[in-house]
Structure prediction request, 59 residues.
Amino acid sequence: MGHGWPGDKQMNSVLKPSQWIKLIDRLGEIDNPTVREQPSKYAITVTPPRRASDAHHGE
Prediction:
């Protein structure tokens, strides 16, 4: 952040440096789940809602 926004000081004090190190170490210990490449045969097909506008389509 550091742009003079109102939440800057609060965001900078959420975790102390040692807490960041512990958090990153802990995240490294968590196993990633196995994810299937194809949906289950029980999955329900859902069509996305129609866009109200084509403005910014593809962004």
About this structure: The chain is about 30% helix and 0% strand.
